[in-house]
Amino acid sequence: MVFNTGAALLDAIVLAVVSQDAVGTYGYKITQDVRLVLDISESTLYPVLRRLQKDECLEVYDMEYAGRNRRYYKVTEKGMAQLQLYKAEWKLYSSKINRLFEGGK
Amino acid sequence: MNRKEFMEQLERLLQDIPESDRQDAIAYYNDYFDEVGPENEASLIQQLGSPGKVAGIIKADLESGENDQARYTEYGYEDGRTEERKNPPDRRRRGYQEPKPRSRIPVALVIVLLIFASPLLFGAGAGVIGVLLGICGGLLGIIVGVFCGAFGGLIGGVVSIVVGAVRLVISPTGGIFAIAVGALGIAVGLLFLVLFAWLVIRWLPALFRWFVDLCHRLLGHVRGK
């Protein structure tokens, strides 16, 4: 892709992906879901998830799955508020650029 | 390299980060290997790259706590400073070109116009040169004419006076008439001489200067175009 995805946009995408599962989702699935829209490498998301966790936008819990522990990520209330902010910003940003590109006033 | 080797190398490379951070990362990637299953282990290792690359991404994140230029992109961790290198070649590959400054008048068009207009330009140029030469010739003619008039008047006057003086003895009336005509001729000759001198001294340099000035202006005009 020509356009770089900045840290904020990547945070927003990850928050949006995680928020789709009310009970939370796990690292591998998050990566695969993000990869549906962004061509990222398998190793890109770990630091992002970790940072969102540190910022208290994501919370983690371990749950047993198929005889082993699986770490689940869930969006916190703070994370939800952050996601709403990102969505509003993105709407404004993308509509301005769309308007410019499509030539309308 | 198999999963065990990969994870061992990763753990070793993360020796210098805090214990909790290391355990967190190791747990995450162990989880990841569990998810893909043993059958996809090799392809996951290939996609992750080397343990060094994965460790580098983890460490870069820990170090860049307040670094605003750092960002994660689909290329992995990137710094604002390294980004510039990635974009320009990409743009060129996609056919992006720096706009070239265009000359205001296309050279080819000017040449074609000059070729088509050459008979007209040549005719006009020859006409102008002809007019200038005509004026010069006319002025030269006037000057030569005035000089000859003066010369003829003086010579004629002197000759007429001499002839009149000789005739005076034979025919007083004819002699006096000839002397009078001679005097008139000298007067007219002197008048022309004065006119000639005035033309040569006052008018010729002025005319010459005007002509040179005109040529300069014409040439300058052509060059200016």
Describe this structure in words.
The complex is a heterodimer of chains A (105) and B (225). By secondary structure, chain A is an alpha+beta fold. Chain A has one domain (7-102): Orthogonal Bundle (Arc Repressor Mutant, subunit A), CATH 1.10.10.10. Chain A is built from 4 helices and 3 strands. The mean pLDDT of chain A is 92. In chain B, strand 1 (71-73) and strand 2 (76-78) form a beta hairpin. The two termini of chain B are 76 Å apart. In chain B, strands 1-2 form a two-stranded antiparallel sheet. Helix content of chain B is 80%, strand content 3%. Classes of the chains: A alpha+beta (105), B mainly alpha (225). Chains A and B meet through helix 2, helix 3 and strand 3 of A and helix 2, helix 3, helix 4, strand 1 and strand 2 of B.
Q: In a nutshell, what does this entry contain?
A:
With 105 residues, chain A is α+β, with helices and mostly antiparallel strands. Chain A has helices spanning 7-19, 27-35, 45-54, 77-102, and strands spanning 25-26, 58-65, 68-75.
